[in-house]
Amino acid sequence: MKMEKKLVIPGDFLSDDVKLADEGTYVEDGKVFSSVFGIVSMNKQIKVVPLSGKYIPKRDDIVIGIVTEVSFSNWIVDIRSPYEGLLHISEFPRRIDNAEMSKYLNVADSIMALVSDVDESMKVELTLNDQRLRQIKDGRVIEVTPSKVPRLIGKNGSMIGMLKNETGCNIFIAQNGRVWITGKDKNIDLAIRTIQKIENESHISGLTERIVKFLKEEKGISPKERAKEKEEEKSGGILDELLDK
């Protein structure tokens, strides 16, 4: 069974085969329906990729948050969700007194944090007690639609890997749709333009090819020059193999 990619809304009928139901769908009376507004596609399973939507936090998500308030024992953190994040003083990576909290994290500071727990009432607890986590003090942070994060990362990290290589930037994509970029200013500018293009065109087929072309044009490399680069890379690889023997 093959299904053309098309726009659907919640409640649209998708299939009579409930075994095909996947993300963005629900089953009712033996039929599969769309549960979100988005693009439906069929590749072994029926999946609907949302075109919009707020970030709903889940345990073990890494998010980029912005401190909005410092209370007696918690930092209140905006995580781009209907629900606030709470970073308790005990989850800071060093022991500090309550009176000193604002010296370490203050309003408007950005952090990379882990969602340590989400209870039934959607109380979202955060932690910084992990070597991957930190306060963000350099680079730039931009925002993309949270539902576009998988497309920005790409299959097995292919899209983000290419973006890092082509721009020379370090790029971290958080689950809540915030993206932290560090590097030279002109490279960060290129990365931002490319990320915006990926977000705007993520629902159109042939995205990877268009992004490769876009990056080469932005960097001023012609298709002929790129073909020459590939040949040189290939020759270099063969030479390395011979030298290794």
Description:
This protein has 245 residues and is α+β, with helices and mostly antiparallel strands. It folds into 3 domains: 6-50, OB fold (Dihydrolipoamide Acetyltransferase, E2P) (Beta Barrel), CATH 2.40.50.100; 62-136, OB fold (Dihydrolipoamide Acetyltransferase, E2P); 140-218, K Homology domain, type 1 (Ribosomal Protein S8, Chain: A, domain 1, 2-Layer Sandwich), CATH 3.30.1370.10. The strands form 4 sheets. It has a 5-stranded mixed beta barrel. The protein has a 3-stranded antiparallel β-sheet with strand order 1-5-6, with no helix packed on it. Helix 4 packs antiparallel against helix 5 (207-218). It has helices at 101-104, 149-153, 158-167, 185-201, 207-218, 223-244; strands at residues 6-8, 13-15, 25-28, 31-34, 38-43, 45-50, 62-70, 74-78, 85-88, 110-118, 124-127, 134-136, 140-143, 170-173, 178-182. The chain is 29% helix and 30% strand. The termini are far apart.
